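User: Could you write out the 3D structure of this protein bound to S-adenosyl-L-homocysteine? I've included everything you need below.
Assistant: Certainly. Input first, then the structure.
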Amino acid sequence: MRQRNVKNKKEIINNSKYITLNPKEYRGSFKKLFNNDNPIYIEIGMGKGDFILENALRYPDINFIGIEKYDSIIALAIKKIEGYELNNLKLIRMDALIIDEVFNHEIDKIYLNFSDPWPKERHAKRRLTSNIFLDKYQNIFRNNPIIEMKTDNRNLFEFSLISFNQHGYLIKDISLDLHNSNKDDNIMTEYEKKFSLKNNCIYYVKVEKNG
Ligand code: SAH
């Protein structure tokens, strides 16, 4: 995502009631952060937060955690979310590379929306659906791993389907043209709104594995 520098971004992050500043301290006990045992869904690379905010508003009995690597981007998400009083939403500024140092068998679903495609072969490991990341995700799920992914990037989509398959995931739902399918509970992300205006096809897959 192109970044514009956000003034006072550190201050915005450090003072937000939605941010968990030392997430490793909650490892294995994230339910304490929410004071309940509801399922926890995370979005990795949440960008400016439209998707996770709308989910938190629509599904009060699910806890949501938005993860984003860059200060400026998460600061923009905070500005958007700060006006709401939500007990089921938290945000973490971190690189997903350390995700298994932060969560321990406590996550029920991962959302990956319009993840960076890293088109060059030598950068394939950086894709959020590469072996490296799928191995890490394995340790964060409470029950059966479930991942839902959306992208307009066909190469990333094909790469991800193969990668999921190699890790034993089964396809539970798939669309090669999400906006012309009959999935009526779709919540749009910022990228999705932008790309669909350009008439890009949106690919969607939900994968799950047993154990
Ligand atoms: N999900 C949003 C943003 C997509 S852009 C949307 O659909 O509109 C991809 C986002 O992932 C960017 O904001 C980028 O900063 C973030 N990101 C990329 N790699 C990441 C990583 N390793 N850990 C956390 N966030 C990451």
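The chain is about 30% helix and 20% strand.
User: Perfect, thank you.
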